[in-house]
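ingest -> validate -> predict -> emit
validate: passed (alphabet ok, no gaps, 123 aa)
predict: started
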Amino acid sequence: MELTKSELEIMDVLWEAGEPLSRSDLLERSEKKSWKDSSVHILLNGLLRKEIIEEAGFVKRSKTYGRTFVPTMSREAYYAQAVYGHTYRPDLTGLIAELLSQQNPDKATLQKIDELIRTQMGQ
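emit:
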């Protein structure tokens, strides 16, 4: 599943929020957006169809109720799926090496990665 630039902008807001957001909340928190406010319903419905968000409930705003939404997967899970959801998949070792060279992680992060690898190997 691939998301458009506008859909990713909405997802970034939802991922950062860590709580259910309504359409109004999304509009308030979307500082850098390439889409028009009037397009938010179309974008949310597209994300619902792609099953990357789901309805979390309702919230009352003045006299009306609005749906709230939450992501169905983490940012990391989405990007991992985006990388490995294609026919031509990158070599895992090469991908990790490139990510490490671009991110320049600190020692604590490298230790966490080492722990993850050891867990996967059953040690």
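The domain at 5-71 is CATH 1.10.10.10 (Arc Repressor Mutant, subunit A).
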